[in-house]
Amino acid sequence: MACTRILKFYCAIDSLTRRPIYGLIFLFKWRDEDADKLEASCPEGIWFANQTVNNACASVALLNIVNNIPDIDLGDHLQQFKLFTADFTPALRGDAIGNFEFVKSVHNSFAR
Q1: What is the per-residue pLDDT for 3?
Q2: How far apart are CA 81 and CA 62, in angstroms?
Q3: 49, 85, 108, 110 from 89: Cα distances, Å
Q4: Model pTM greater than 0.70?
């Protein structure tokens, strides 16, 4: 049933925008997870980071989306970060996001 609802939601958005949809962001309250619950790996060709730091859910979600869009110009900072973290586990990528000064600076520029 949940998949049907998401599919209907996707179709409704698609019919309104008529542009590619690269991802949907669902935000939930962050919880410090047990390390055993974090993703151990990703399918080949997929870039995914676990959220391992508090207050970064939208930044992590956006990075998870843009790092999987083919032929997108990420700019130097994000392209170097993507290449640097290519062989990381999703949990290590999440930790790397928490230490990535460029993303922290952009993220904090939107803080109130």
Answers
A1: 44
A2: 14
A3: 8, 8, 25, 28
A4: yes
